[in-house]
């Protein structure tokens, strides 16, 4: 039972942090993005612009656009054109490895993941050995899974994106290995019943706050969304489904799912403000 409350606190806190990221500045940027997308539609067609839109809005939520602009809203057109260019270059490849899971593409990509990981470990002073190569193979498998479930931002090329994913997995591997070495196995203390009861008591004290402030506020805010947006929020943040899984369940494209997610978060921010939940903490 205590694990339930701990998980619920973590989910609610994470969910509220996502809503807090939706700030007025983003809304100004979004308005300029919509104008830029209209220009793109005249150049490349309405359908192409609709495909680009959810990618750019997701990048806005993830603060990638903010980093690119560096305070200069005049660069929004440049960013839209950049995403459009990268989409033309890389969409077929990404669709092949993520959606179709084309074996030929993966036979070429997977050895690269191993090489990237192995080279990274060598730069971090790992020995040039079979053991390090085995570490690289393990990391490559995790990187491949991350690639399958990550959204390509289309504001960079594929290779730097893949490199970054491999580096992140290498760092996680190194962190986990370091933690294993910090505490010898014979010094680890198992959670006995007394410790579990103390954790449960601490979680129980927080239960009223969770029920009154988080559960009720979140439920009320979500209930005010349209059905489609409500379903995406439920699947994404509470059932923890991937965008691909959500798209399959709803019978929609992944682009449509990202669009629904962004607009739902925008609406939720407004709904939370109405319920009195502070988004500035």
Topology:
Layout: H1 2-20, H2 24-44, H3 46-61, H4 64-69, H5 76-99, H6 103-123, H7 130-149, H8 158-182, H9 193-223, H10 227-238, H11 243-250, H12 254-275
Question: How would you characterize this protein structure?
Answer:
This protein is an all-alpha fold and 281 residues long. The chain has a domain at 101-183. Helices cover 80% and strands 0% of the residues. It contains 12 helices and no strands. The chain has helices at 2-20, 24-44, 46-61, 64-69, 76-99, 103-123, 130-149, 158-182, 193-223, 227-238, 243-250, 254-275. α9 packs across α12 and α11 (243-250) packs across α12. The longest helix has 31 residues, at 193-223. Mean pLDDT is 79; it is low at 1-6 and 198-207.
